[in-house]
Amino acid sequence: MTASELLRNIRTQLAPLYGDFAQPNAEAVVGTALSITRVQLYTDTSIIIGDDDLARVNAITQRHLKGEPLQYIFGMAYFYDREFFVDANVLIPRPDTETLVEAVINSEKDCPARFADIGTGSGIIAAVLAAHRPKWRAVAVDISYGALRVAKKNILSSGITNGRERMDRQDSSSPPKNIHLVCCDMLTAVRPEKQFDFIVSNPPYISSTQMKALGNSVAGYEPHTALRGGNDGLDYYRMISGCAKMYLKDGGRVYLEIGYDQGESVPGIFSDDGWAGIAVTKDLAGNNRVVTASSSQKLADFS
């Protein structure tokens, strides 16, 4: 059996479940399992599938047919401009979150700054921001120790500079000095003083009703603690709005990912709590995706 023949076979198996997405999913299954490129799948006729290769591809296909995301099966996901490790302790990175990262990079100055990443999960937000802005230092917190293990692995392998040069990831066992990982609920283990220039977070924002409607590939595999945002999906925004000013410097900002239907409710929470410069940014699909707010009128106009 050739690689192209195997690809057709896997696509046929996936078609009833994935429809138009069967082809790219089949390409991902076969290409990743065999460590060959998409071009090789279609052009390299010399690739012959052995029994071990066939067994491996079939095993992956059966797991995927049950709903298990390929990112968990292969232990990796792409986000922004690089590849990250993921497992069942963390959410799979979505392109929506790239809008959050872009909002921070485009709004904050490229000068020394300190920020907090609340609910860091896989650590991808802190890792990407620190990689693109080597002068920034971060405190990345999460209540899940399992998530922080994933975050540590991603930070060590993300190519983050440590002020001067890239660290040797093979010989390093601790996160670089510009990202400090803390296991705690919200910022409860961080000294409540005005020490951060900005706070960034992709908090849980799925409502109870929405949780019940999630498909098996999400509800059956991704951590519910990273999804469930309370009865109306707004619990964590209320907590951040209520406590973040204690940690932000005057004029410091928050950058928060929101659900597509929270473009009015989340800004309303921050407005009621006296935040200034509240703005909503849309993602590439035109959905409300990021809310930004300033702790005071000073520096509130950062657009």
Provide an overview of this structure:
The chain has 303 residues and is an alpha/beta fold. Helix 7 links the parallel strand 3 (113-118) and strand 4. The protein contains twelve helices and nine strands. The chain is 38% helix and 18% strand.
Give the fraction of residues assigned to helices.
25-40%
SS element count, helices: 12
Tell me, briefly, the overall form. elongated
Structural class, from secondary structure content? alpha/beta
**What is the H/E order?**
HHHHHEEHEHEHEEHHHEHEE
- Radius of gyration of CA atoms, rounded to a whole number: 21 Å
Q: Could you give the distance between the termini? A: 57 Å
Quick rundown:
With 303 residues, the protein is of the alpha/beta class. The protein has twelve helices and nine strands.
Helix and strand topology:
Blueprint: H1 3-18, H2 22-34, H3 38-43, H4 51-65, H5 70-74, E1 76-79, E2 82-85, H6 96-107, E3 113-118, H7 124-132, E4 136-142, H8 145-157, E5 179-183, E6 196-201, H9 208-213, H10 216-219, H11 235-243, E7 248-257, H12 265-272, E8 276-282, E9 288-294
Parallel strand pairs: 3-4, 3-6, 4-5, 6-7
Antiparallel strand pairs: 1-2, 7-9, 8-9
Fill in the keyword field for this structure.
303 residues, alpha/beta, two-stranded antiparallel ribbon, 38% helix, elongated
